[in-house]
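Ticket #432: bound-state structure for protoporphyrin IX containing FE.
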Amino acid sequence: MPATDHQLTEPVTGPAEPVRGPAEPEMGPAEALAELFTPAGKHHPYPLYDALWGLGPVIPLGPAGTLVLGYDEICTALRDPRFLVTDAAVHRTTGMNDHSSWQCFTKIMMFSNSPDHERMRRFAGWAYAPRLVAERRRLAVGAAERWTAHLATLDGGGPDGGGPVDLVEAFATRVPITVTGDLLGIPEADRMELRGAVTATTTAFEPVFDRDELLPADAGMDVLVDYLADLVRDRRRRPADDLISVMVRDRDAAGALSEDELVASLVMFLIAGVQSPSDLIGNAVRLALHHPAEGRRMTTDEEHTAAFITETLRIDPPNHVLTRSAATDIDLHGHRVAAGSRALLVLAAANRDPRRFTDPAAFDTAREDNRPLSFGLGPHYCLGAAFARMQVEAAVPVLLRRFPRMTLAAPPTHRDQLVTRGFARMEVVLGS
Ligand code: HEM
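RESOLUTION: The complex was predicted; output attached.
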């Protein structure tokens, strides 16, 4: 029988403010939304999604826009090109274009609309081909073995396994930066500084109440852009056997991207390539420790591992919210979304839509037709989905095989982020 995932729906350590649950009948949409973006709400959003579900699958928020929770409703919005991603034109009135973080983000496909979006997706599409994903599995297994060996050196080695160690710092953040660093040809010595800058840039996706909140993201972006622009110049002079060299050669041959767009695409590959896969590794390990029998099966059964990771993506995805801007007045399943207003598409709530998933709060790896929306849908569907899954499906079993007695030493804590959500710390006793 699948167990309801209490530990994902009960407060663990974190910000001290009380979080209201679904039983609070007076909570209105604006109040629930405001609470969602408090530190406590970001740490512990699932009861708030439950509260919001009581208000329906599409919730008008007045001039603030529309909150969309329903699975079918989000599918419709993601497939409808009138729901624009927040590109430079959409940001013209928000002031975001003055910030280096958004100056770079709006040069990548994820934040570009037609026809730039298609042009960029065509240029980079080959880098995500299934054949290449299969070839990269070797890199992912190698990275996982390397960092499990590193974990063992941190372990005190006492009868109870010594420790505790922070699995986020010592494993989950390191495996994807190792794989992506190898692919891009980033020297080992530079990787961890870039890794810190990557996380900083993702804070730019959170709602901004004060523009100073973007300063850490801007600083992180400056580091990434300067670094990758240098690497592009270097590979143009001295091509190597890496993805940057191929992209530089393709760009220079066909001129399909400007130089800034080329650098931005590489920044994107680095950010997308490491942040969400790291967060997914953390979420999957956490669930494996909470469901030990299911976790153990991952050490021997690849098919089960794939189902486990799909269910992790459903019940605790790395990206909770996507934003769209209505190009015109749109009727979304009977609700009017006004031209120019924002729609917040809450993927993490849609993954628990009771009309689509039976007993949605239960962690159940045997679900049929389990298709969470965690990689998006439609024209912007995640290009790296297969690559990301491959890394996580390769890495987590290596870890669990090496440390079969691993346990949580303390409740893990999240970064203060909801749009790109993941653990800041996860202390474990390895038990090796
Ligand atoms: C668990 C890991 C990942 C998750 C949960 C994830 C999630 C997503 C989501 C939800 C979108 C859609 C954004 C939107 O519609 O606005 C997206 C787009 C994208 N992702 Fe991922 N992603 C992951 C890993 C990766 C990796 C490893 C890469 C590449 C190295 C990657 C590259 C991209 C790209 C290029 C797009 C933009 C596609 C487009 O705009 O056409 N992602 N991702």
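RESOLUTION NOTES: Confidence is low (pLDDT under 50) at residues 1-23.
TICKET STATUS: resolved
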